Amino acid sequence: MGQVFGRGFRETFVINDDGTVDTRSETRSTYDSTEAIPYGEWLQLAYEQTFLPPDRIHTGLVAADKKKKLPKNFFDKATLGNFVTGFQVWMQREMISRFSYTKIEGLAGATALTDDQGQPLKRIIQGNIGVYRDEESRVPEKFLYDVLAYDSPKEKQTIRDSHLDQVVVFGKIPRRSIPVPLYFGGAISPDFMYVLKDKDGKLSLNFIVETKDVEEITDLRESEQMWLEASRKFFESVDKEKIKVTFRPQLKSDDIVTMIRQVVDADN
What we know:
The protein is of the alpha+beta class. The chain contains 6 helices and 10 strands, in the order E-E-H-H-H-E-E-H-E-E-E-E-E-H-E-H.
């Protein structure tokens, strides 16, 4: 592999006399990814990005060196990046069946749909619901909002078809409003929420849907498959807290009508 060079930039915000704001960038330094890093510093940087104890990293490197001699000047920014990435990929794969969610006590505050008293907001930002807006179609009566906002053709179809008797109310989940924490960092938020009722008219459960515009689960990136598995476990843990909820991914070929009927039938 050839040497990789890059530049570091510093961006400064400047307020002009007329109140406008400009940004100015300046080059701070030039670096070479193959520039050597002192061994102790390399271990510390690896620890800060993986939380693996430096002594354990050292032990592993010594063992690796005994099996196959590490190249001269091995410890640089490139090998540090490869080590961190390799560990993160390994952890994501190995921990997918070993993590769980636990409820913690805390104060509930305002949400994307309610104020800090739990009352519904009168208005929300459309961009938090969907980047597109259908001005021509009639907004479904049971849709939570007064505009048909969506992010993809599949979402638009789902909104249009969710007019079953079993549906009490449904809506797009505002972005980042139900953040499902991921064990490998970050969080995701599903796409749709439903309140459903059984054949006797009794409110039976909450239905959460994550829409994916692919034919098969295997068509998703590995990280997205892990997101879905994390979401499934998260809502299973919520269900155990006596809040009835079911989570399902919706693929391109999945009809929301069939999905809703299957969920309601399974609950009866």
